[in-house]
Design a protein that fits this description.
Blueprint: E1 3-8, H1 12-15, H2 22-26, H3 28-40, E2 44-50, H4 60-64, E3 89-93, H5 99-105, E4 106-108, E5 114-118, E6 122-128, H6 130-144, E7 149-158, H7 162-174, E8 178-179
Parallel strand pairs: 1-2, 1-6, 2-3, 6-7, 7-8
Antiparallel strand pairs: 4-5
Helix pairs in contact: 6-7
The structure holds zinc ion.
Residues 50, 52, 61, 69-70 line the site of zinc ion.
């Protein structure tokens, strides 16, 4: 089975920085082992980075969440040192979910148009936060690639609160994301 792992926003600002959460620190070891498992099997791993510019506070996201984070080029924007990105792609995204990432994965038809398929049987997502960027990307991938299994294992991601983590898992389950136990 051909698999792809997408590691969502495991950046300094979300783990120990301006939006750091203790529940994010708790998943570092498990996410690290997941990445190593994929690499060992020769499977592809893509890291995403939440990416903002200096005008963050004037953006819609900044108005709703006025905490400066993940500014391009800063320490907070970097993937945490515990995770090894060597041999992996790093994909910067300006919003919660990335249509560009899903488009990049969709196979092209004879006339260059995207299709509802990709080369992977399964795309697994892990990282931060379950209730914002993990769910956004899971639902975009599900919409763009309805024939691909989209998997989220709850122990490899963390939400802003325990309640919103559980609520996001429930919503993903309802939308036929493969939420494993
Ligand atoms: Zn952000």
């Amino acid at each position: 089975m051909k698999k792809l792992l997408i590691v969502i926003d495991m950046q300094n600002d979300f783990v120990t920085g301006s939006l750091g959460l203790p529940q994010a620190e708790k998943i570092v070891t498990t996410v690290k082992s997941k990445i190593e498992e994929y690499k060992k099997n020769g499977d592809r791993v893509i890291f995403t980075r939440d990416t903002h510019t200096d005008n963050y506070l004037e953006t819609q996201e900044g108005r709703h969440l006025p905490v400066v984070h993940c500014i391009e080029g800063t320490e907070g924007h970097r993937i945490i040192d515990d995770l090894d990105t060597s041999g992996c792609e790093v994909f910067d995204k300006p919003a919660f979910g990335s249509i560009e990432l899903a488009e990049m994965l969709a196979l092209k038809g004879a006339f260059g148009q995207r299709t509802d398929k990709c080369e992977y049987d399964e795309i697994e997502l892990c990282g931060l936060c379950t209730d914002i960027c993990v769910i956004s990307n899971a639902l975009i991938l599900k919409a763009m690639l309805p024939e691909t299994r989209i998997t989220v294992d709850p122990s490899y991601c963390a939400g802003v609160t325990e309640e919103s983590h559980e609520a996001a898992l429930m919503t993903m389950k309802m939308c036929q994301v493969n939420v494993t136990e």
